[in-house]
Specification:
- The chain is mainly alpha-helical.
- The protein contains 8 helices and no strands.
- Helix 2 (47-74) packs antiparallel against helix 7, helix 4 (89-109) packs antiparallel against helix 5 (125-143) and helix 4 (89-109) crosses helix 8 (171-188).
- The longest helix is centred in the first third of the chain and has 28 residues, at 47-74.
- The chain starts with a helix and ends with a helix.
Length: 189
């Protein structure tokens, strides 16, 4: 991805959902938890593992989208072009959509570090609004012709768009499984 792509993602798909997460109500069991050690770092208590795991999963999903786009465009994955630094326009477009959408979907996972998003009874209407706004703003550089030209994107067929969004959506079930495993591990500890 180009710097302008990453800037758009940071300003659009990260900014609004992050602000909306700040409006999230406190978790129900917050007062039953042991206090954190005042000397503990930001990455203590497994937070570093959580961040590393999430980063690796998001990276793999975006790379899968890029290679799928390259395959859809060329009928093969050409590593020689990649080594020469020649980006595939369909791969770049699909990876942009996947990275944008995975950030939006993942914001729902981030409502709670360990609780399942399906067990949370209250909805964060700010987050839903921010997700819809980020989704609409993600569509602009992909679908508006002059913006697509500036970003170096190409028009995708519906199968490519659905593949990119489907790969992004995988962050939700993957994180649900991860949270379930971590709940079990922490319960046994």
């Amino acid at each position: 991805l180009e710097p302008v792509h990453l800037l758009w993602i940071n300003l659009v798909t990260d900014c609004f959902p992050a602000l909306a997460l700040g409006m999230e109500k406190a978790e129900r069991d917050i007062m039953r938890r042991q206090p954190r050690d005042a000397k503990a770092g930001v990455f203590a208590g497994g937070m570093g593992v959580d961040i590393a795991f999430q980063g690796v999963i998001i990276t793999l999903l975006v790379l899968a989208s890029f290679f799928a786009g390259m395959y859809f465009h060329n009928g093969a994955i050409d590593f020689a072009d990649l080594i020469d630094g020649i980006p595939d326009p369909e791969g770049v477009t699909m990876s942009f959509i996947t990275l944008s959408m995975v950030e939006i979907f993942h914001s729902f996972n981030m409502r709670s570090r360990r609780a399942s998003i399906f067990s949370m009874k209250r909805q964060n209407k700010w987050l839903w609004g921010a997700a819809l706004l980020a989704l609409a703003l993600t569509v602009v550089p992909v679908e508006v012709d002059f913006m697509a030209e500036v970003f170096g994107f190409m028009t995708l067929d519906p199968m490519a768009v659905l593949t990119a969004i489907g790969l992004a959506f995988l962050i939700i079930p993957i994180m649900e499984v991860y949270k379930a495993i971590m709940r079990a591990v922490e319960k046994d500890a």
